[in-house]
Amino acid sequence: MQNNSQDGMQSGKTERFVEVFCGAYASGKSENALNRAIHFAKKGEKIILVDLDSVEPAYCLRPIIPRLEAQGVDIIAQRDYFGLGEAGGIVTGEQVNCLSREGNIIIDVGYGASGLDILDILTGVEDEKNLKIYLVVNTSKFETSNVENIIEYYHFAHGLNKKPWKKFSGLISNTHFGPQTTREDIIHGYEILKEAALQLNVPIVAIGADIGLKAAMPQDGKYDGVEIWYLERHMPDAMWS
């Protein structure tokens, strides 16, 4: 990350963290969220990945839950309901009370008109001391294709119910074109987001890049001082990806 990564923040501390990943459709928010969960699980940390998609209930993570659990990630997701498009809206008690669980928590928020308002249903969210909310931006998508669109989507994604804790801690640059993505695509997307970040006065905390491009990226794991998160592609094996 640009300043202190969550890895460093955790050392020597008992206070757990809660990370929320939000973004437009196909921004890569789910891929970032689950890769982040696997990252911490491999370090031996207790990690819970919450699928809080009320738009299309749990269709994303459901097919790959066994794979994630095999890697040490505890999953809270809808396993019995199904929704399409904006027809969703079912949430379970386990999702609502996910913050009552012990351990570090990563939340994958669905896209949709409500934005971060879905977080209002979580019991105790306003009391979390180490809550980080990230907006994942893919400049290959129309909604976030240029600086003006990014800024507009940033404000839209906050939702309607304004609360002091409901704010983005940072942006994640995640421009991609699936398996056709190049190093140049990633850097070009970052430069667009960088200008938007300056205008919004919000930091870019990470750059998402396919693990297959690691050799083409800076070997110190950073670009322009920003940490690169190398992602293994799991979502192509999920439904409707």
Tally of individual helices? 6
Helix content: 10-25%
- Residue-averaged pLDDT: 87
What is the terminal-to-terminal distance? Answer: 27 Å
Account of the protein in words:
This protein is of the alpha/beta class and 241 residues long. Helix content is 24%, strand content 20%. Strands 3-2-4-1-5-6-7-9-8 form a 9-stranded mixed β-sheet, with helices on both faces. The model is unreliable at 1-6 and 8-13 (pLDDT under 50).
Feature tags:
globular; alpha/beta; 241 residues; 9 strands; nine-stranded mixed β-sheet
Task: Sum this structure up briefly.
The chain is an alpha/beta fold and 241 residues long. The protein is 24% helix and 20% strand.
Task: Record the SSE blueprint.
Elements: H1 6-10, E1 18-23, H2 29-42, E2 47-52, H3 65-70, E3 74-76, H4 93-96, E4 104-109, E5 131-137, H5 147-157, E6 170-173, H6 183-200, E7 204-210, E8 222-223, E9 226-231
Parallel strand pairs: 1-4, 1-5, 2-3, 2-4, 5-6, 6-7, 7-9
Antiparallel strand pairs: 8-9
Helix pairs in contact: 5-6
